DNA sequence: GCGACAG
DNA sequence: ATCTTGTCGC
């Protein structure tokens, strides 16, 4: 088990107050660092994603630790908890973060960089689940989403690795990255301790022949119950 | 007021 | 996210 200090104050219990939750997001967004604050020579990275069981009553979070050099999975874990609240656009992290943090504690090694399925700062109040995850754990994080929540962008070229900025209210909040030709682009945004200029490159480093980068792709497979097994 | 809306 | 087989296109 890792001994990562999770900031409980950054993960308030859901009390049904939407307006209040949004205020909390604005405050937590103020703690996000958009400068590279990680070891240049990454040793281990991790992917996180969430799925549901029992008609949504159970939230299932998957955490996969990989060797940053070989991209080979070193550990895979699944955490199940009772679902805490329904899905509300813009408040995704309040619903899924508790399970993700539980999965994080199952890792035997603290990852140097975390990739979360969802947005980083590409969010109405700049606190998508990846950013929230970073602030709550202090770990460098990046958001890898499949669809835009807010903002507009042009179409990135069809070549693998092409990317264009995603903007919202006059500022850049992320990138549209063509990880694979003829596939819809990924929406990549910094979570915490990662610079905008580094985000797309960091994700592309772990893309092989699939649309999703290995960390998120493997976690996705574990989170959705269509998994073949372990090792 | 009318849509849009990560997973 | 989830319910679900085959099928069209590269």
TrEMBL record:
Gene3D superfamilies xref list: archaeoglobus fulgidus dsm 4304 superfamily (3.30.2170.10)
Residues marked Interaction with target DNA (site): 87
Subcellular compartments: Cytoplasm
Cofactor(s) the protein requires to work: Mg(2+)
One Pfam family named in its UniProt record: Endonuclease_5
GO BP terms: DNA repair
GO cellular component term, pick one: cytoplasm
Single GO MF descriptor: RNA endonuclease activity producing 5'-phosphomonoesters, hydrolytic mechanism
Record's keyword terms, sorted: Cytoplasm, DNA damage, DNA repair, Endonuclease, Hydrolase, Magnesium, Metal-binding, Nuclease
EC number(s) reported in the record: 3.1.21.7
Residues given in the record as Mg(2+) binding sites: 49, 117
Catalysed reactions, semicolon-separated: Endonucleolytic cleavage at apurinic or apyrimidinic sites to products with a 5'-phosphate
Statement: the UniProt record of this protein carries the keyword Iron: no
Role played: DNA repair enzyme involved in the repair of deaminated bases. Selectively cleaves double-stranded DNA at the second phosphodiester bond 3' to a deoxyinosine leaving behind the intact lesion on the nicked DNA.
Name assigned to this protein: Endonuclease V
Native organism: Luteimonas cucumeris
Name of encoding gene: nfi
């Amino acid at each position: 088990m890792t001994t990562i200090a999770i900031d409980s104050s950054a993960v308030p219990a859901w009390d049904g107050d939407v307006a209040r939750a949004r205020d909390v997001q604005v405050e937590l967004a103020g703690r996000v660092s958009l400068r590279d604050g990680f070891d240049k020579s990454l040793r281990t990275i991790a992917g996180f994603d969430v799925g549901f069981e029992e008609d949504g009553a159970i939230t299932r979070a998957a955490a996969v630790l990989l060797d940053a050099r070989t991209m080979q999975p070193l550990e895979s874990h699944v955490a199940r908890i009772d679902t805490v609240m329904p899905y509300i656009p813009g408040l995704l992290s309040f619903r899924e973060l508790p399970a993700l943090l539980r999965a994080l504690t199952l890792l035997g090694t603290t990852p140097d960089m975390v990739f979360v399925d969802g947005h980083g700062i590409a969010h109405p109040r700049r606190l998508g689940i990846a950013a929230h995850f970073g602030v709550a754990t202090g770990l460098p994080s990046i958001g890898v989403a499949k669809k835009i929540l807010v903002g507009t962008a042009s179409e990135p070229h069809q070549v693998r690795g092409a990317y264009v900025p995603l903007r919202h209210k006059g500022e850049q909040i992320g990138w549209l990255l063509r990880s694979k030709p003829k596939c819809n682009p990924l929406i990549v945004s910094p979570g915490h301790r990662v610079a905008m200029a580094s985000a797309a490159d960091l994700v592309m480093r772990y893309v092989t022949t699939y649309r999703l980068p290995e960390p998120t792709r493997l976690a996705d497979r574990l989170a959705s119950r269509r998994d073949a097994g372990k090792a």
